[in-house]
Amino acid sequence: MEETLVINVLGLSIGVNTLISLVATVLLVWVFCMVSTKNMSVDKPGKAQLMLEWVYDFVRGLVGGAITDSKVQMYNLLGMTLLLFVFIANMVGLGFILTIKDYSMWKSPTGDPIVCLALALIMIIMSHYLGVDKLGFKQYIKSSYMQPVSFMLPINIIEEFTNTLTLALRLYGNIFAGEVLLGLIASLGGSFFPVTWVIGIPLQMVWQGFSLFIGSIQAYIFVTLTMVYMSHKVETEH
Known about the structure:
Layout (H helix, E strand, L loop, with lengths): L5 E4 L2 E4 H22 L9 H18 L7 H20 L7 E2 L2 E2 L8 H23 L1 H9 L7 H39 L5 H38 L4
Antiparallel strand pairs: 1-2, 3-4
């Protein structure tokens, strides 16, 4: 288990490596969006603009398959922001390892359970807010918790907790496991230098590629499930 400096925020222990990479992730998303939308053109779009438009079209397909609300544009923007954030957060820990005085100073933010749980909670709470805002409190409770029959209320409440946990833990488990294995492979490569480099470097390259694939899939799954959960709150028919 990696060691890092820890700070306490509102009773929660947060690693400095997670905090640094979390800030870096937000900045990377912001820079990508700023660069992509600078000097936008209909006739001669740049590569960055084309990439952003591709991401938007991709997310629009995900959202359209789950939500038919008249304000679907809002969900498209939310889904695109979420996809960019989760994808970059999954990737930033793959490039390199930063250690200062035996303390880890860099990792994927989504390799921390607190970040994943906070992200899942934000999305679930937002889905409740949007549901109440659209349907009204009484109709929202009826359509979300009293269907198909009223005695399903306890089961539907439990489902809310399980949705939050599974949304967070699925993302955390995959990213955390990938980074642990990358660390083990790096240790193997440096254990009996230069002999183990023959094994360690190819394994590192293969696992980096596999982790890139897993990180992309997990970002896709997170956004897809979030939109499905939201559709259950804002749509009166499931």
